[in-house]
């Protein structure tokens, strides 16, 4: 059972606010939360407002659903207005004055981070608002764990801020896989992409360097470079074309698994996953 001692929670919130207020205020964002979930299903939560932290524990907003396919991505997004129930959204708005939450999921092999931003007032076009800020939000999401490293370490040791996820909730897919699978993106036997190649492509298209990608995926920068060079040579496609085909192929597989009918083109291409 987790304790939410008011003094300790408030003190921690003040420390978090010192780190992120310079970023939030100019962008008219009021709420920030960082949640790290480890491989053993324990997690820590850091928030810039103590009520934001406490409300997540009481009302079960621990794991908002991620709609985008995460298997071939290092990061994904969750827009609360589309994924939380009306009851949950009402509680957030009426009780805490929280509007238009956005969570960024960032995956690693031994843990994953959910970084959440939200406003204190309604916006007439929240999707357009976040599209304008998305690059800044991604960058801050990557910077925060370094800036708050001391708080993360302290929280990981403290039973006050550590929570075990319910056995009914499984988030194994949120962790980066131990091994890759092949995703076929064309008719030719060489027209495939592996899980880690797909993630490298995503990060490269976001402007990340080989060194930055390597740090995220626990591999050397030279390995990342080799992945991308071999991928382009094998498929004869640009990274943009590979990314588009991968997304389409993954969605096709997801639809088949969910019971949606295959069209003739899908049957003809016989897109499938294979273990390496």
Keywords:
disordered C terminus; 6-stranded antiparallel sheet; globular; 18% strand; alpha+beta; 3-stranded antiparallel sheet; single chain; 276 residues; Beta-Lactamase
Q: What is the rounded Rg?
A: 20 Å
Q: Can you tell me the residue ranges where pLDDT is under 50 for at least 5 consecutive residues? A: 57-62, 164-169, 254-276
Shape: globular
Biggest sheet: strand arrangement: 3-4-5-1-2-6
Question: Total helix count?
Answer: 11
Number of strands: 9
Question: How are the elements arranged and paired?
Answer:
Blueprint lengths: L5 H19 L6 E8 L3 E6 L2 H9 L16 E5 H4 L2 H11 L2 E9 L3 E9 L6 H22 L1 H9 L4 E3 L16 E4 L7 E3 H11 L4 H8 L3 H15 L3 H19 L6 H6 L3 E3 L1
Antiparallel strand pairs: 1-2, 1-5, 2-6, 3-4, 4-5, 7-8, 7-9
Helix pairs in contact: 7-9, 7-10, 8-9
Describe this structure in words.
- This protein folds into two domains: 6-173, 2-Layer Sandwich (Beta-Lactamase); 177-275, Orthogonal Bundle (Arc Repressor Mutant, subunit A), CATH 1.10.10.
- It has eleven helices and nine strands.
- The protein has helices at 6-24, 50-58, 80-83, 86-96, 126-147, 149-157, 195-205, 210-217, 221-235, 239-257, 264-269; strands spanning 31-38, 42-47, 75-79, 99-107, 111-119, 162-164, 181-184, 192-194, 273-275.
- It has a six-stranded antiparallel β-sheet, sandwiched between helices.
- A hairpin with a 3-residue loop joins strand 1 (31-38) and strand 2.
- The protein is globular and about 55 Å long.
- Mean pLDDT is 77; it is low at 57-62, 164-169 and 254-276.
């Amino acid at each position: 059972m987790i304790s939410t001692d008011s003094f300790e929670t408030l003190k921690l919130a003040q420390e978090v606010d010192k780190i992120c207020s310079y970023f939030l205020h100019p962008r008219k964002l009021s709420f920030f939360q960082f949640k790290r979930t480890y491989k053993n299903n324990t997690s820590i939560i850091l928030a810039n407002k103590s009520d934001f932290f406490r409300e997540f524990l009481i009302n079960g907003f621990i794991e908002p659903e991620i709609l985008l396919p995460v298997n071939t991505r290092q990061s994904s997004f969750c827009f609360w207005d589309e994924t939380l129930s009306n009851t949950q959204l009402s509680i957030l708005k009426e009780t805490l004055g929280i509007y238009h939450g956005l969570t960024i999921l960032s995956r690693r092999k031994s843990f994953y981070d959910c970084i959440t931003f939200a406003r204190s007032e309604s916006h007439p076009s929240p999707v357009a608002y976040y599209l304008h800020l998305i690059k800044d939000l991604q960058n801050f999401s990557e910077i925060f764990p370094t800036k708050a490293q001391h708080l993360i370490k302290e929280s990981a040791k403290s039973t006050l801020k550590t929570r075990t996820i319910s056995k009914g909730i499984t988030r194994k897919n949120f962790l980066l896989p131990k091994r890759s699978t092949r995703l076929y993106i064309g008719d030719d036997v060489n027209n495939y992409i592996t899980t880690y190649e797909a993630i490298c492509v995503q990060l490269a298209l976001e402007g990340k360097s080989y060194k930055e990608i390597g740090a995220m995926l626990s591999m050397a920068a030279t390995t990342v470079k080799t992945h991308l060079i071999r991928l382009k040579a094998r498929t004869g496609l640009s990274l943009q074309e590979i990314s588009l085909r991968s997304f389409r192929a993954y969605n096709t597989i997801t639809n088949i698994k969910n019971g949606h009918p295959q069209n003739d083109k899908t049957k003809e291409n016989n897109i499938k996953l294979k273990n390496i």
